[in-house]
């Protein structure tokens, strides 16, 4: 069965977004600092269609591997963004990513707000799932076929997946800074890693990539 | 001037002690898991006078370096332990470490409870400082001479030192597990590392050693 693979950037004090997140400031105050390591990388720039070469280093290899073999994505409502109460023809919020999002596969958005599916350019569709994470995951697995499912976050839906033991692989990109406040990834997620264990560390000056996988998976 | 060097073990979810710490369970529930990586190491076993060889690996080198060139230690009241209201001749609490503690140099305990200094075997003295961290640090610097001062924790006094910008070097031994609750190191410590930056990472399967130092120190 396809794996559920989750990756997220986290500060040394455990925050995955800064305080006062909003549609105008989706990463929260200071949240951009969690992602500065990824912006210069070739894999990131290519995925988002930016011009120029980009940096090729060990972090780039981590990002390339994290993108490879993904057939579908699950994300939470806040990651998709917008004001769901205003989702209608006059306010056609289609996510943060413009007309051609970088997914290029089906994306399932866990939300309480029903909405018709969206088909954007480049093979990205957004399907809005109102009956919970297990339903979203089942639909994503079907869409992914032999490929894996990416759990894109944010923190809330990621915590739900972790607590349910539904994450097979988790990459924590630990950024050596403090945010001081905001949203924590690990908050009420329990006293263990739900079957995950550290299997690989890549140490860079501006980020530490900590890869966890399921103990029973037989992976290296 | 001598450096103030701080090291502590922290879970992936940011806890440096488990919940419900007490004299009977000073590390809190599950807190022992933060320290399992250190127990087998040769440097740890030698420091505590345990028999047998012990493991010599990259973590051992980190511990050896952390012990080297320390001339005095500062710690908080909880790290010293005991019930200060009962410190008297009938209840001579002398710390967790027995008659010959592993410090072998002067230790300054930041506390609100005055007490006469203690002299134990092997060169360890405990001096109780009731006028704050700056006074404790000044006394420790005088005692250390050309050597460095170790900030031994716990979390409360460490936070005070961090917020005051008094830490020159910080080693976070990040343990890939969750405690779920307990005492966080970084809680109200602000939105930056108070002049510290990541200068070295040692990646092991059971711990990631993240060494921070002062940007202005000119260290590698």
Within the largest sheet of chain A, what's the order of strands? 5-6-4-3-7-1-8-11-10
Work out the largest interface and the residue count of each chain.
A-B, 32 and 32 residues
CATH topology of chain A: Dihydrofolate Reductase, subunit A
Number of helices of chain A: 5
The CATH architecture category of chain A equals 3-Layer(aba) Sandwich
Helices and strands of chain A, in order, run as EEHHEHEEEHEHEEEE
Q: Name the CATH superfamily assignment of chain A.
A: Dihydrofolate Reductase, subunit A
Oligomer: homodimer
Query: What is the number of strand segments of chain A?
Result: 11
Q: Which residue ranges of chain A are poorly predicted, with pLDDT under 50 across at least 5 consecutive positions?
A: none
Helix content of chain A: 10-25%
Report the sheet with the most strands of chain A, covering strand number, pairing sense and barrel closure.
9 strands, mixed
Based on CA atoms alone, the radius of gyration of chain A comes out at 17 Å
Principal-axes shape call of chain A: globular
Give the distance, in angstroms, between the N- and C-terminal Cα atoms of chain A: 18 Å
Task: Bin the strand percentage of chain A.
Answer: 25-35%
Structural class of chain A comes to alpha/beta
What is the class of chain A in the CATH system? Alpha Beta
Structure description:
Two copies of one chain form a homodimer. With 220 residues, the first copy, chain A, is α/β, with parallel strands linked by helices. Chain A has a single domain (4-217), classed as Dihydrofolate Reductase, subunit A, CATH 3.40.430. Chain A contains five helices and eleven strands; from the N terminus they run E-E-H-H-E-H-E-E-E-H-E-H-E-E-E-E. Chain A has helices spanning 42-47, 58-67, 77-80, 133-144, 155-163; strands at 4-11, 15-17, 70-76, 106-110, 118-119, 125-129, 148-151, 169-175, 183-184, 196-204, 207-214. In chain A, strands 5-6-4-3-7-1-8-11-10 form a nine-stranded mixed beta sheet, sandwiched between helices. In chain A, a hairpin with a 2-residue loop joins strand 10 (196-204) and strand 11 (207-214). The model of chain A has no long low-confidence stretch (mean pLDDT 92). Chain A binds chain B through residues 12-14, 30, 172, 174, 176-181, 184, 186-193, 197-198, 201-206, 208, 210, 212, and chain B through 12-14, 30, 172, 174, 176-181, 184, 186-193, 197-198, 201-206, 208, 210, 212.
């Amino acid at each position: 069965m396809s794996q559920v693979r989750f990756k997220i950037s986290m500060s040394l004090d455990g925050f995955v977004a800064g305080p006062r997140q909003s549609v105008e400031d989706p990463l929260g105050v200071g949240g951009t600092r969690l992602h500065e390591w990824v912006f210069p990388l070739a894999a990131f720039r290519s995925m988002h269609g930016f011009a120029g070469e980009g940096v090729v280093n060990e972090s780039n290899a981590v990002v390339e591997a994290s993108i490879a073999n993904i057939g579908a994505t699950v994300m939470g409502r806040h990651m998709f963004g917008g004001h769901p109460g205003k989702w209608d023809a006059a306010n056609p919020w289609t996510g943060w990513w413009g007309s051609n999002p970088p997914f290029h596969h089906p994306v399932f958005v866990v939300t309480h707000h029903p909405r018709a599916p969206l088909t954007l350019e480049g093979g990205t569709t957004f399907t809005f799932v109102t009956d919970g994470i297990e339903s979203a995951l089942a639909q994503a697995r079907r869409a992914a076929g032999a490929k894996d499912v990416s759990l894109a976050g944010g923190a809330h839906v990621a915590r739900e997946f972790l607590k349910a033991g539904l994450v097979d692989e988790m990459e924590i990109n630990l950024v050596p800074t403090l945010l001081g406040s905001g949203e924590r990834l690990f908050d009420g997620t329990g006293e263990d890693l739900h079957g995950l264990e550290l299997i690989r560390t890549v140490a860079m000056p501006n980020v530490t990539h900590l890869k966890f996988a399921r103990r029973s998976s037989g992976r290296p």
